[in-house]
Every structure is written in C-alpha cells, then in structure tokens.
Amino acid sequence: MYLIINLATILFFILIIYALFLESFTYDHKKIKINPKTLSLTISAILLFIVFWTTSPYIKGTPSKWHTIYKNKINANIKIEYGSITLEPKKPISKKDINQLFEKSFLLELIDIESDSIDVAITATNEIDSTTKTATLDKENIIEKWPKGKNPNRTQGTITKIEYRTMPVTNKWFGLTTNKSTYPEIRITVEYKGVNNKSTKTLFDEK
C-alpha cells in the first residue's frame, strides 16, 4: 500500500514538473522565449520533489512481539491468499510457489522496482466462526528450514508455523506528523524435506 502511495505521488510530481516545463519555454519565430515566472515554478517543483524523495514519510515504530497463530489451540485452520495463490499448512508448498508471491507486476517491471513486500489476506476458520485480516508479508519474513546435514528439496515443503504481529507507523510530511496508525505483519516458516544428493553444480566443479 505504501509503495502504491509513493508511486502515485511521484507520478503526480512528474506530471506537474512536465506541464510547468512546457509552459516555461515557447517557440516563436525561430526563437525560444523563456517565461521567468513559470520557470521559477518549475525549479520550485523540482526542489520540492527532491525534498519529498529524500524524506521518509513513513516511520516505523517498535513492533509488538510475534505470536503464533498456527499451530493454535482453538482448532482453527489458517489460509493465506494473494491473488490467485492460496497457501495452507495442510497443502505442500515449493520454492516456486514462494517466488510467485513476489513476482513483479507489469508496473513494477516497467520502472524496475523489486517487490519485496505484499499484502495478503489471512483467514482463520474453526467451528465457531471465521476471521479474515489483511496483513503485510515481507520476503525476509519467510523462514526456510531443512534437516541438518542434508540438502533441501525445495519442491517438497510444508508450512509449519505462521506468526502475527502489529507494526506502529507514523506518517510525516516535511517533518510534521500527519497520522499515526498500525498495520499487521505475518511471518511464515517453511520446512523442506532433506535429501542426500549433492547440487548439480558439483558436476561442473562448482561449489
């Protein structure tokens, strides 16, 4: 969400600067005329954009402690959804499935921005009711494990733990606090089966 807001703000600045730049110069009788007032506005807009770009409008506070929601003591099944992708602890998961979560959209691909954070829907369901929350999943919050002394078979994994916490965020604009809020985060632990086979890189004398 924060990435979308930043992209929209940057696009707005670019459009304003472009429009002012076009108005700053006019072509008349093979001569370029400069409009001083509009040019000064263009320079001001560029400086404002630089200030915005170098100022972090979102400041994270101290997060709450992670607490485990899977496995749980209330017999609740947990489901994580992102677009057409659904992850459940009872279903197998592979490294390919994880990579698909963070595939760059067409817009991010166009401007070459890595997608290291996504907003997912996480649903807990038992015999009493069902609760759904929207939470942020960072790539760094996917923990991968496998048996010690073996290599991981990343085509055969299982979600063994899902954790949840909230993160306080302060929105600032040029140093002034405009809003305070919290957003939830989740962390997933995936355990792969271990194999004794070595990497194919060893066939080419690579370590």
Give the overall shape.
Answer: extended
Structural class given helices, strands, pairing? alpha+beta
Question: Beta fraction of the residues?
Answer: 35-45%
Q: What is the averaged pLDDT score?
A: 80
Compute the number of strand runs: 11
Largest sheet: 5 strands, mixed
Which ranges are low-confidence, i.e. pLDDT below 50, for 5 or more consecutive residues?
none
Overall helicity: 25-40%
> What is the terminal-to-terminal distance?
40 Å
The whole-angstrom Rg is 24 Å
Put simply, the count of helices is 4
Order of helices and strands: HEEHEEEEHHEEEEE
Q: What does this protein look like?
A:
This protein has helices at about 1-25, 35-55, 95-100, 105-110, and strands spanning about 25-30, 30-35, 60, 65-70, 75-80, 85, 115-125, 130-140, 140-145, 150-175, 175-195. With about 210 residues, it is of the alpha+beta class. Strands 3, 4, 9, 10 and 11 form a five-stranded mixed sheet that branches. A four-stranded antiparallel sheet has the order 6-5-7-8, with helices on one face. Strands 1-2 form a two-stranded antiparallel ribbon. Strand 5 (about 75-80) and strand 6 (about 85) form a beta hairpin. Helix 1 runs antiparallel to helix 2 (about 35-55). It is extended, with a radius of gyration of 24 Å. The mean pLDDT is about 80.
Keywords:
single chain; 207 residues; alpha+beta; five-stranded mixed beta sheet; four-stranded antiparallel beta sheet
List the helices and strands and how they pair.
Elements: H1 2-24, E1 25-28, E2 31-34, H2 36-54, E3 58-60, E4 67-70, E5 77-82, E6 85-87, H3 95-101, H4 106-111, E7 117-125, E8 130-138, E9 142-145, E10 151-173, E11 176-195
Parallel strand pairs: 9-11
Antiparallel strand pairs: 1-2, 3-10, 4-10, 5-6, 5-7, 7-8, 10-11
